[in-house]
Amino acid sequence: MGQKVVFLDIDGTIYNHEKKIPIATKKAVKKLQDNGVIVSIATGRAPFMFQDLLTELNISTYISFNGQFVVHEGEVIHQNPIALNQLEEITKFSIKNKHPLVYQSIHDMKSSVSDHPYITKGMESLKREHPLVDTEYYKQQTIFQVLLFNTEDEQATYEDKFEHLKFVRWHQFSCDVMPFIGSKAHGIEQFIQAMEIDWKDTYAFGDGLNDIEMIEKVNTGVAMGNSVDAVKAVADYVTDDVDNDGLSKAIKHLSLIN
């Protein structure tokens, strides 16, 4: 049998709606690992935002920043930061339109403004505080992703202007900004090629808009019961809600564990 690998989204897949890991999920991940399956995180979050989760689940492989930074057992396999000139352009445009930004590096994130209600609400949904302000942060650090804070109807203006960037909404007041080729699917592809894993042995589980491409890319894509409709539409299988142990039920349904 070939080496199997499972890619797990965090919010709404591993974490339930209270940002906690269900006991059944912990047991399922442990059984996967005991069965020799590679368990990888696949998230839009920056690495510094889920180190506690990696420790708790004993996971050392992850696809972060929606595919822009890929690590396997401490080794960086792929990295695709946003170009400085593109960061400068979107910063100027966001200032003109009074839309704040949060710049994310591997180790930290900083805001373009000291206080903004959209940032506060977005961070609260992740159980994090409003980042400190540093308008020069993107010039000093390698930035893999930017969080743009505006409403959904305001996002189109940015999509029209910045053809080399991709905008994926994750919150009522925010969207992820990354290089146009970026996606969890792209990061997964880099990992699969590096590890020489057969695509027939790939599985992915998710619930949000940034999971669509990876659900389509892998051999078996699973949508959580709490997924947005667009994710369910492309999934090979739709499981139960995250609050009803949907992840562990799906892993058992696919016979990855007993």
CATH class of the largest domain: Alpha Beta
Rg for CA atoms: 18 Å
- SSE topology string: EHEHEEEHEEHHEHEEHEHEHEH
Shape, per Cα inertia axes: globular
Helix content: 25-40%
The count of domains is 2
Question: What's the quick description here?
Answer:
This protein is an alpha/beta fold and about 260 residues long. It is built from 10 helices and 13 strands.
Walk me through what this model shows.
This protein has 258 residues and is an alpha/beta fold. It folds into two domains: 5-80 and 182-253, Rossmann fold, CATH 3.40.50; 84-179, Hypothetical Protein, Haloacid Dehalogenase-like Hydrolase, Chain: A, domain 2. It is built from ten helices and 13 strands. It has helices at 23-34, 51-57, 84-96, 117-125, 137-140, 152-161, 184-195, 212-217, 229-234, 246-253, and strands spanning 5-8, 38-42, 61-64, 69-72, 75-79, 101-104, 109-111, 145-149, 165-171, 174-179, 202-206, 220-223, 237-238. An eight-stranded mixed β-sheet has the order 5-4-3-2-1-11-12-13. A hairpin with a 4-residue loop joins strand 3 (61-64) and strand 4. Helix 1 packs parallel to helix 10 (246-253). The radius of gyration is 18 Å and the shape is globular. The mean pLDDT is 97.
